Amino acid sequence: MGDFSQFITKTPSTIPDKGTFSCTSPSNIALVKYWGKRPIQLPENPSISFTLDVCKTETTLHFEKLNHPTDDFQFELFFEGKPKPDFKPKIQSFFERIETYVPFLKHFKFIIETKNTFPHSSGIASSASGMSALAYCLMHLEKGINGSMTDEEFVNKASFLSRLGSGSASRSVEGPITVWGNHNEVPGSSDAYAIKFPYSIHENFTNYQDTILLVDKGEKQVSSSVGHDLMHGHPFAAKRFEQANSNVSKLKNILISGDLDMFIEVVESEALTLHAMMMTSLPYFILMKPNTLSVIHKIWEYRKDTGSKICFTLDAGANVHVLYPHSEKDTVMEFIKSELVVYCQKGQYICDKIGLGAKLL
Ligand code: DP6
To answer: With contact defined as beta carbons under 8 Å apart, do 109 and 75 qualify?
Structure first.
């Protein structure tokens, strides 16, 4: 399971009375996918993602010291200004998982206020941005208590805590590109937390665009926990984890060399493999919708006709992330508006791009 003792903070002798931290943290889109985990929240294979910029969660953490630490966590939760009891169990189990590493949690009463920049029912996972925003706020509280922390220790632990909330959240703390999961060709990489891609990234990827087509805004058919579980005993699991490792090697070289044709191949193959895993598990799922496929075919046609470097990736759902270089922004947007928006529910899409990670406000 690994030794994570470096992240254990001793219960401090001085604890601030009260205060507030507000942070934002973005969503991210995996290029090499994390699909399959073992306890607790450790990935079966390394993954790489673009950190996003526009789709993010803003969280304010109010804390007030209790006279006596309590037996249970004391917190209230507000989403878009309203109490949100349905989110409480997720935060409760997050607190339980991180308590060893943040032992001062029971010394406070917390009020957590949170909101997203993207519509809640957009099918965009808010766990990555939500969990990392909360972890980032807690790290600022910890930094106030344990001031000796270096910047590197701070971001590593913020990612470590985020991971315990949601695996992909570990990749949202920093940007523009992060790697989560141990890989022998990525120095510093770890299953315990994500790191910034440790090489200089080719300028082809500067300001890379991600237009998210909201093909289906319905509730998720398969929660990610159920989804990850499907990889236990999956007939193709071992091969898939091997392939992900090799795709991380390929993508590492691509991000350094700027080879966009190879980028397209790895990224689209990863998206389709993720869905292939779901189609070939028991129970099996098809999470794409007819419109997802129509969009994919349109993208392929456009690429063939124009030589554009546009490509797509998918999450565990029907929405399509359309990825393309900044230099093609105007032309691809024209194509999206004229050819792809018809496949979006209520014509909705979100223009996002590669971003830099969590921030203190
Ligand atoms: C398909 O991070 O949502 O988006 O660790 O159970 O919270 P939990 O899972 P989660 O899984 C994300 C899966 C994915 C691929 C990816 O982001 O790498």
So the answer is: yes
Instruction: Please list every protein residue whose CB sits less than 6 Å from any atom of ligand 1.
Output: 30, 33-35, 37, 41, 47, 125, 127, 166-168, 224-225, 228, 274, 315-316
- Let me know if residue 360 belongs to a domain: no
Per-residue pLDDT reduced to its tens digit, 197-241: 999 999 999 999 999 999 998 777 788 889 999 999 999 999 999
Instruction: Say what percent of the chain tops pLDDT 70.
Output: 97
Of 171, 224, 278, 319, best ligand 1 pocket probe by most atoms within 8 Å of the beta carbon? 224
Tell me which residue has tokens 């926990």.
Answer: 225
pTM across the whole model:
0.96
Number of domains in the chain: 2
Q: Are residues 238 and 116 part of one domain?
A: no
